[in-house]
Design brief:
Layout lengths: L5 H19 L8 H8 L3 H7 L3 H19 L7 H12 L2 H13 L8 H24 L9 H21 L5 H10 L4
Helix pairs in contact: 1-4, 1-6, 4-6, 5-8, 5-9, 6-8, 7-8, 8-9
């Protein structure tokens, strides 16, 4: 991999962190490679030394956001309520949510470089949510007739839809609405 040396890895991280920060603050929206270079004060060709393409760089931003989100929640205490609470964190970084939603929409094309990332991410989140639903069913807090797999996919769709709506209208209380969706599953 290009930039695999410690100095190269550090430079790659510097580019990734700088772009993530600018996108999170909504300083860049669907930026071209030239705009990214200008914002980071780096030649586009230099960016391409560390990332295969603009899409590779933007996917790296989304992957970093996803890793940070997972790290913020201890895996042993993941709950449906923590899933809802993640929306609060996401809404605080609207530029990254905008990038995520745009990239997810583009990645429906199997040839898109992020297609497999999103497919695996949706599968992993659905499996985790379905497991949480089963656990709550066993504990008697979610109705036995609720289909865990279907409900998990619905919760993901609701979360993504609420985040989109919050980008369009900042007055929407997406976190409350997500908690309401989860409450509708409970006894």
């Amino acid at each position: 991999m290009v930039g695999a040396s410690p100095k190269g890895a550090a430079r790659r991280e510097e580019i990734l962190n700088g772009l993530t920060e600018k996108i999170a603050r909504q300083e860049l929206r669907n930026p071209s490679l030239r705009e990214i270079g200008r914002a980071l004060n780096i030649e586009p060709a230099h960016i391409l030394y560390y990332f295969n393409s603009r899409e590779d760089l933007l996917q790296s931003v989304i992957m970093r956001w996803d890793e940070d989100a997972r790290a913020a929640v201890h895996p042993d205490i993941v709950t449906l309520d923590k899933f809802a609470e993640q929306l609060r964190r996401n809404i605080a970084i609207p530029g990254v949510v905008h990038l995520y939603l745009n990239f997810a929409a583009e990645a429906v094309d199997p040839r898109h470089p992020a297609h497999e990332f999103f497919r695996l991410r949706f599968d992993k989140v659905a499996v985790n949510l379905a497991q949480r639903i089963r656990e709550e069913q066993a504990g008697g807090t979610i109705r036995a007739g609720v289909n865990p797999e279907s409900s998990a996919r619905q919760l993901i769709a609701i979360a993504d839809g609420l985040q989109l709506q919050s980008l369009v209208n900042a007055n929407i209380n997406s976190v409350k609405d997500m908690f309401d969706a989860i409450a509708s599953l409970r006894v």
